[in-house]
């Protein structure tokens, strides 16, 4: 939102030409501390791409996406040139609204300005303004948009008269948060006004929070004492913002499109209300441009629209529905369309079909910008995988024969398998008897509700019960049922009608680009499938009551987080890698896991006994009695060791000859810090702060972050906390920080590269960490650093914040995850306080194997001698400068690797909390000379397999 102060406005500027004017604008932003001097180049480059002239004497210079890194904080500077300057595109400019934006905030500013431009004479007012206040008043009027969308429709009400419908519409506005109860009360006393064609209107002005238009329609048209009733509109009027709504209503009636309006599905009603006539040709297209429909692509679109033989209108499917002229730049910009949203073009008359498809094609082509497809939803990708997987049946693993895959989380367990397979559902799309179909659907809904209620009762507390309750709520949603009934009324079968309703609701959720809401979309589809299963008479898979080993194709981190840890004894997946974040989560939950076991495991039968050895990566189906006995014995022995280690968990880890190694915990959730301390952690060696960000529907603000980090500091009671700054990208996308799809995301914009592009995010995070720490020890490190330049760029921001916050006990370090950084460790060690080696990424980048690669990740072994040499280089360089080195990657908890790492001189190992006692116990088994010998032995080997073999033999 554009808020201006007097300092932001400069009146009476003069310039010889447009370049000189732009120089002044750049200098004004630099002076305000918004940008660094290099931003000027970005402004010029942007202007060279296409003019930023908006209309009415206003231009809006802003930098290119590449120049955003020179932006320190988002803001604008307004320069008034009363005499006007000749802009390079031939227009005359009186006002430069120069924008420094770190992300897509400039879209909102643009949107606001386009509303400003709609007012008559605004150009002259701004050019002739004699005070900053006048300019601010003219620019700062916030656009008030009136609501008329799916949330304000109330269709198929079983009403018998107009007043009942009026009340239903008013109540819908109250539920949508547009009005309060006094508005509803004011509607009660009104007699609806006739609009013709069976439509009626009630309206009110009291208790209106946001202008809006609702429509309530009856189950069936009826006649009451005054006339025919097919729908009642309810208008919440405020200022003049509702006028546009009235005009839309008027247009609808004038076109005669009000007839049978009430019998249309919601989507078409909204289309008619948006100004799209029943005869219009339409085309829909999703916008793929990374930065939405900003000025440059919008201009291209307008040019294509102007070249058409007929007038084309465009609306945003997800917006408040108003269709605007596609030939008007300000109107198109005013849509504020973002990547992923859907544009609907409409036109009438001869050539309409060609016109709308030309526009849709232009949007698909990127409107002059390179575009990348949207990422598939999980459903789509599952469907795609299902299509490419060969239909040939794959044989299940042979009884009692070990199948070796990728060890992902240690632990040994025996339990029956539960193979998660979603059954295929076949059904007819159409049915004749809609009453019967509605009845079938209602029965299935009741059945599903019963199933869920039983499940909720059986599940004791926790996240799983919570999810099941959400599912029950969803089943009871009248909107879903009504939408399905409506589709059935149009001839769909109960199955098709229900799935259409579920799919539409899930898509709407997904379009909101909010992680929590997107997860709700997955829940909606889960609920949908349950009902569909009942309709098709197919039983949906239900996890057994008894403990089991879950066998699945692949699991995402959120699937792992949802596992019922009381029952899941082990995890076997056909795909996935050891250092994928779902594997890391399994380790944190203490569930034995083997991943990348191949499709054969999916051919196992539910109930067959399985042994899962998460340490060696072995899975054995239907073990022989002898093997079973041996495994049980090993489980017992491991339990004895575990108990012994647990008893000494709070003691330091020293080798037999007294060399101390600090053992800390890796955390993703600050609430788990107390648990880590309880398990013997001497501090937190890696706080993956991105999980703090992922747990919020939008970027957590300063106060939220201070409170979350503060929770960990409190629990640590003076022990050190090593926090890694936000590390998203790669396999950890952040829903509210959409990134263009990259061919190689692990080699793309992630880690520090990404946060340096949004310095305000990094700055807030650093401020939060330092503030939360206060006098307690905090260690901060940057992820994915490739050389000293990136470290210095991050350090500059850190220094600025620390100069203000003055936290008492701080160190700033680097994660060694990129080979270049290990090779250049001597230069980094001079400036960084410490290193923490992220062996997961270091291995991925050294061996050039994607850490989650379904086939190759078994070879991605961090005990590879090349990785060990990089660790050796890092430790030597650090110690030469008196710095300490930790290992926070998964290698730190590998029993074979612990002696090698200690022998190489690593000072700290940070592992998942559960592993802390065992890692301490492993250190206590060693002597330093022996560990050094083993390290040297490992370094001499040619391959990872040879290292493992050599270490096993000695
Ligand atoms: C690593 O790469 O080893 C690491 C600790 O970071 P992450 O696994 O979160 O990428
Ligand atoms: Mg990493």
Automatic annotation (TrEMBL):
It is found in: Cytoplasm. Residues 280-370 form the HPr domain. InterPro entries: HPr-like, HPr-like_sf, PEP-util_enz_mobile_dom, PEP-utilizing_PTS_enzyme, PEP_util_AS, PEP_util_C, PEP_util_CS, Phosphohistidine_dom_sf. Residues 431-458 form a coiled coil. One of its GO terms (molecular function) is phosphoenolpyruvate-protein phosphotransferase activity. PROSITE patterns: PEP_ENZYMES_2, PEP_ENZYMES_PHOS_SITE, PTS_EIIA_TYPE_2, PTS_EIIA_TYPE_2_HIS, PTS_HPR_DOM. Its main location: cytoplasm. It holds the Pfam family PEP-utilisers_N. Its cofactor is Mg(2+). Residues 2-142 form the PTS EIIA type-2 domain. SUPFAM superfamilies: Enzyme I of the PEP:sugar phosphotransferase system HPr-binding (sub)domain, HPr-like, Phoshotransferase/anion transport protein, Phosphoenolpyruvate/pyruvate domain, Phosphohistidine domain. It catalyses: L-histidyl-[protein] + phosphoenolpyruvate = N(pros)-phospho-L-histidyl-[protein] + pyruvate. Keywords: Coiled coil, Cytoplasm, Kinase, Magnesium, Metal-binding, Phosphoprotein, Phosphotransferase system, Sugar transport, Transferase, Transport. Its EC number is 2.7.3.9. NCBIfam families: PRK11109.1 (NF008319), PTS_HPr_family (TIGR01003), PTS_I_fam (TIGR01417). Belongs to the PEP-utilizing enzyme family. This is phosphoenolpyruvate--protein phosphotransferase. It comes from Archangium lansingense. The lineage of its organism: Bacteria, Pseudomonadati, Myxococcota, Myxococcia, Myxococcales.
């Amino acid at each position: 939102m554009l808020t201006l102060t007097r300092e932001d406005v400069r009146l009476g500027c003069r310039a010889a030409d447009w370049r000189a004017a732009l120089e002044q604008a750049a200098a004004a932003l630099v002076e305000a501390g918004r940008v660094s001097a290099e931003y000027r180049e970005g402004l010029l480059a942007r202007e060279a791409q296409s003019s930023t002239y908006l209309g009415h004497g206003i231009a809006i210079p802003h930098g290119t996406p590449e120049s955003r890194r020179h932006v320190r904080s988002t803001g604008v500077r307004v320069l008034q040139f009363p005499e006007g300057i000749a802009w390079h595109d031939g227009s005359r400019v009186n006002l430069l609204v120069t924008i420094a934006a770190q992300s897509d905030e400039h879209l909102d500013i643009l949107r606001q300005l386009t509303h400003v431009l709609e007012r008559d004479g605004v150009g002259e007012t701004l050019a002739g303004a004699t005070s900053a206040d006048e300019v601010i008043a003219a620019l700062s009027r916030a656009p008030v948009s009136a609501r008329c969308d799916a949330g304000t429709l109330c269709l198929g009400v079983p009403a018998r008269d107009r007043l009942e419908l009026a009340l239903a519409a008013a109540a819908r506005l109250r539920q949508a948060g547009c009005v309060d109860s006094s508005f509803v009360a004011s509607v009660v006393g009104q007699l609806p006004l006739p609009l013709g064609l069976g439509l009626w209107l009630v309206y009110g002005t009291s208790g209106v929070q946001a202008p809006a238009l609702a429509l309530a329609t009856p189950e069936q048209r009826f006649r009451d004492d005054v006339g025919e009733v097919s729908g009642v509109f309810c208008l919440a009027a405020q200022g003049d913002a509702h006028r546009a709504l009235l005009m839309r209503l008027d247009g609808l009636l004038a076109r005669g499109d009000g007839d049978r309006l009430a019998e249309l599905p919601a989507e078409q009603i909204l289309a008619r209300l948006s100004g799209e006539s029943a005869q219009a040709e339409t085309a829909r297209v999703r916008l793929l441009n990374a930065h939405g429909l900003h000025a440059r692509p919008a201009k291209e679109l307008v040019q294509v629209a102007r070249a058409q033989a007929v007038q084309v209108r465009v609306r945003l499917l997800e917006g408040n529905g108003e269709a605007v002229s596609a030939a008007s730049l300000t109107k198109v910009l005013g849509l504020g369309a973002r990547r992923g949203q859907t544009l609907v073009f409409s036109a009438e008359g001869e050539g309409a079909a060609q016109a709308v498809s030309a526009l849709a094609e232009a949007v698909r082509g990127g409107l002059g910008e390179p575009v990348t497809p949207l990422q598939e939803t999980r459903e789509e990708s599952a469907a795609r995988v299902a299509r490419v997987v060969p239909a040939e049946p794959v044989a299940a693993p042979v009884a009692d024969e070990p199948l070796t895959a990728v060890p992902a989380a240690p632990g040994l367990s025996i339990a029956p398998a539960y193979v998660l397979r979603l059954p295929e559902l076949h059904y007819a799309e159409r049915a004749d008897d809609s009453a019967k179909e509605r009845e079938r659907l209602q029965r299935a809904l009741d059945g599903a509700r019963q199933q869920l209620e039983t499940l909720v009762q059986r599940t004791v507390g926790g996240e799983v019960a919570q999810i099941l309750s959400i599912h029950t709520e969803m089943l009871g949603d009248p909107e879903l049922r009504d939408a399905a009934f409506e589709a059935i009324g149009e001839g769909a079968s109960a199955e098709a009608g229900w799935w259409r309703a579920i799919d539409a609701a899930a898509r709407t959720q997904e379009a909101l680009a909010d992680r929590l809401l997107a997860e709700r979309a997955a829940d909606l589809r889960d609920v949908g499938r349950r009902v569909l299963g009942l309709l098709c008479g197919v039983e949906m898979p239900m996890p057994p009551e008894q403990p089991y080993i879950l066998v699945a194709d692949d699991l995402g981190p959120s699937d792992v987080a949802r596992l019922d840890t009381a029952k899941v004894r082990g995890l076997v997946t056909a795909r996935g890698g050891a250092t994928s974040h779902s594997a890391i989560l399994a380790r944190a939950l203490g569930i034995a896991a083997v991943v990348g076991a191949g499709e054969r495991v999916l051919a196992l039968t539910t109930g067959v006994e399985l042994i899962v050895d998460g340490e060696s990566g072995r899975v054995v189906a239907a073990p022989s009695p002898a093997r079973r006995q041996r495994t049980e014995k090993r489980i017992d022995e491991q339990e004895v060791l575990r108990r012994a280690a647990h008893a000494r968990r709070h003691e330091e880890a020293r080798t037999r000859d007294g060399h101390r190694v600090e053992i800390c915990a890796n955390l993703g959730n600050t609430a788990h810090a107390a648990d880590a301390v309880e398990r013997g952690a001497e501090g937190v060696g890696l706080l993956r702060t991105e999980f703090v960000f992922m747990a919020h529907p939008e970027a957590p603000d300063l106060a939220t972050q201070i409170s979350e980090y503060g929770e960990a500091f409190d629990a640590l009671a003076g022990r050190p906390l090593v926090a890694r700054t936000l590390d998203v990208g790669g396999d950890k996308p952040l829903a509210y920080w959409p990134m263009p799809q990259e061919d190689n995301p692990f080699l793309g914009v992630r880690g520090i590269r990404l946060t340096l592009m949004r310095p305000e995010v990094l700055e807030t995070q650093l401020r939060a960490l330092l503030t939360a720490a206060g006098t307690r020890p905090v260690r901060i490190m940057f992820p994915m650093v490739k050389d000293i330049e990136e470290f210095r760029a991050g350090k500059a921001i850190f220094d600025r914040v620390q100069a203000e916050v003055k936290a008492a006990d701080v160190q700033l370090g680097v994660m060694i995850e990129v080979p270049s950084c290990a090779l250049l460790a001597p230069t980094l060690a001079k400036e960084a306080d410490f290193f923490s080696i992220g062996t997961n990424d270091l291995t991925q980048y050294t061996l050039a194997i994607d850490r989650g690669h379904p086939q190759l990740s078994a070879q991605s072994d961090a005990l590879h001698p090349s990785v060990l040499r990089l660790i050796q280089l890092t430790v030597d360089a650090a110690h030469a400068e008196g710095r300490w080195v930790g290992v926070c990657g998964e290698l730190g908890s590998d029993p074979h690797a612990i002696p090698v790492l200690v022998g190489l001189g690593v000072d700290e190992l940070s592992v998942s909390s559960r592993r802390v006692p065992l890692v301490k116990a492993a250190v206590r088994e060693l002597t330093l000379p022996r560990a050094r010998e083993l390290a040297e032995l490992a370094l001499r080997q040619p391959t990872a397999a040879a290292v493992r073999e050599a270490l096993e033999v000695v």
